């Protein structure tokens, strides 16, 4: 299990969340609500984990919105900090680029 997603889930439960400017832009572009992001993290499936990323640990996860549509979210924790959980970006994955379950990139 990813330590990053576990920390993110704990931070979201404590409402220690920041959405980056880029994250807000992407949410708006793909018509994704902040509520969907926050509610979906509890059942998120880890797609890619980057615990040693130079800007701080981050993780790409597959979440579902209220209509059970797929959403990819990149959550991060600032380097050297324990809080907040940051929504770096979020988007609806393109089926052309992802496996049918949206967990693996197509080559």
Provide a compact summary of the structure.
25% of the residues lie in helices and 28% in strands.
Describe this structure in words.
This protein is α+β, with helices and mostly antiparallel strands and 107 residues long. The chain has one domain (3-91). The mean pLDDT is 95. Strands 1-5-4-3-2 form a five-stranded mixed β-sheet. It starts with a helix and ends in a 16-residue tail after the last strand. The relative contact order is 0.23. It is built from three helices and five strands; from the N terminus they run αβααββββ.
Features:
107 residues, five-stranded mixed beta sheet, alpha+beta, globular, 3 helices
SSE layout and pairings?
Elements: H1 3-13, E1 17-19, H2 21-29, H3 34-40, E2 45-50, E3 58-64, E4 70-76, E5 85-91
Parallel strand pairs: 1-5
Antiparallel strand pairs: 2-3, 3-4, 4-5
């Amino acid at each position: 299990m990813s330590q990053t997603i576990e920390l993110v889930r704990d931070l979201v439960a404590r409402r220690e969340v920041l959405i980056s400017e880029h994250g807000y832009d992407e949410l708006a572009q793909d018509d994704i609500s902040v509520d969907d992001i926050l509610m979906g993290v509890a059942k998120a499936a880890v797609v890619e984990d980057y615990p040693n990323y130079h800007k701080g640990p981050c993780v790409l996860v597959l979440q579902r919105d209220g209509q059970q549509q797929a959403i990819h979210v990149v959550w991060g924790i600032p380097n050297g900090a324990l809080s907040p959980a940051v929504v770096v970006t979020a988007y609806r994955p393109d089926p052309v680029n992802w496996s049918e379950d949206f967990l693996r990139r197509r080559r």
